[in-house]
Amino acid sequence: MHDAALIWFRQDLRLADNAALAAVQDRPLLPVYVIEDEPGGPGGAARWWLHHSLVALGRSLAERGAPLVVLRGDPRRLIPDLAAQVGAAEVHAGRQSEPAARRRDAETHDALQRDGRRLVLHRNALLHEPHRVRTAAGKPFAVFTPFSRAVFAQLADLPPPMLAPDRLAPAPGTPQGLRAEEFRLLPAPPQPDWAREFPAHWTPGEAGAAARLAAFLREGLAQYGARRDVPAAEWGTSALSPHLHLGEVSPRQVWHAAQARGGAGLPTFLKELLWREFSHHLLWHRPEMPDQPLRPEFSAFPWRQDATMLRAWQRGQTGYPIVDAGMRQLWRSGWMHNRVRMIVASFLVKHLLQPWQSGEAWFRDTLVDADLAANAANWQWVAGCGADAAPYFRIFNPVLQGETFDPGGAYVRRWCPELARLPDRFVHRPHEAPDTVLRGAGVTPGHDYPAPLVGLGEGRARALAAFGAMRGGGG
Q1: Whether 344 and 263 share a structural domain
Q2: Range of 262's domain?
Q3: Pairing of strands 90-94, 69-72
Q4: What is the C-alpha to C-alpha distance for residues 89 and 106, in angstroms, rounded to an integer?
Q5: Which CATH number do you get for residue 98?
Q6: Active-site annotation holder among 202, 235, 255, 379
Q7: Which of 155, 218, 249, 287 is most buried, judged by most C-beta within 10 A?
């Protein structure tokens, strides 16, 4: 009989294609997840998802004979104590990119080593190792296209995913963990149940991830390139991001399954997977990315912080239908279509001149897929201050964006039902509709739907002036 081992689950809440589990599945196991109530941890929506994912993982592990132990506290203390309790010489876990997680792992490693034990980290969340992929000059990549080429070349011989084990043996002396009702991850009184609609949209857990992947491959991959920017299109995107974030499906499983399916949309879809990899590559090498602009000149950008404007944006009350529809979709479902994410982010940081960090923080709290690397990288991309970012002076016009990508207004009509009866011509520009049209649609400006927070011309001019002031000040 092999010595016992501890497997520390984090962002790899699955049994299939789990390198940490595969390394120790023939030993008596103590599977552990530690809920950390630390500042900067998962936001509310991600905590809702985590609750249900842990329940699903616990059920799968129990069915195979080794129950999941969920604890709350500081893993730097709990993990070494648990390893000692069950006599585990090794703790196996998936490697993480987040700066706080890396510091925690280094301290946990040292604590285990002092007791003669080892922390063994595995590649479980990414297709590449951020600390090993370098440019020809030996530096980290800062531009997506050469990064994607380098990683894509490495993936030519990507091994197939590993199967989940059929049976697992529990470690002797396995302690009792928290019951699901003790996780304290769900909204609870006096909070309103803001997640009440989430179950209609999502099935957290490894089985839910497998079902969504299979449905996307069947229904969406072939036309992904053509439909990915259409927010009303069913299966226009994979919506796999929350499953990938908590590791209910591995990127290797997604990569191989998409390659096997093939189709015209495959190259574009694979690039999206590589953009996720690029975000984690950036975070690994630029740990300041969630808070500080990667282009240092943007530290002097003259933002106009305005709590009233920020709140109107958060509530979907800006007066621009595509923006408001996106923000309401986010609040009600914990997710937003990717094209609309770019539109609402551009509107916040450019037309409203609010700091990108304010948008990043709101997304981090309200997205079920609130991945620190992707969220920060994408906000910096839109704000023009990140690596390989869109120029700041590229300012999305939300009316034209809506008319281009939601031409019949189906997306707006779903999430802004007060505008549902407007004719197509005015559904993205209700503020331009004649009074007779508004009355016929049952819309009273300023009552049923707000007037625009800022004129598009005025907002664009302010944004360009702010950009010019920053550049002038940076001399």
Answers
A1: no
A2: 126-159+205-285
A3: unpaired
A4: 17
A5: 3.40.50.620
A6: 379
A7: 249
Find the distance separating the first CA and the last CA of the chain, reported in whole Å: 69
Does the annotation count 272 as an active-site position?
yes
Give catalytic status of residue 124 as yes or no: no
Residue from 235, 356, 362, 415 carrying the catalytic annotation: 356
Q: Which of 251, 285, 319 is the last residue of a domain?
A: 285
- Is residue 397 part of the annotated active site? The answer reads no
State the residue for tokens 């999305």. Answer: 396
Please identify which of the residues 303, 331, 397, 403 carries the catalytic annotation: 303
Based on the residue annotation, tell me whether 202 is a catalytic residue of this protein. Answer: no
What Cα–Cα distance (Å) separates residue 111 from each residue in 34, 88, 100, 248? 16, 14, 17, 29
Give the C-alpha separation, 377 to 280, whole Å: 9
- In the residue annotation, 379 being an active-site residue is answered as yes
- How far apart are the C-alpha atoms of 239 and 257, rounded to whole Å? 15
257 & 330 share domain? no
Residues 334 and 459 both lie in one domain? yes
Q: pTM score, two decimals?
A: 0.96
- Does 393 or 21 have the greater pLDDT score? 21
Domain count, the chain: 3
Query: Is-catalytic flag, 356?
Result: yes
169 phi/psi in degrees, rounded to 5: -105, 135
State the average pLDDT over residues 357-365: 98
pLDDT one-digit tens code per residue, 211-268: 999 999 999 999 999 999 999 999 999 999 999 999 999 999 999 999 999 999 999 9
In a domain, 170, yes or no: no
- Across the chain, what does the average pLDDT equal? 95
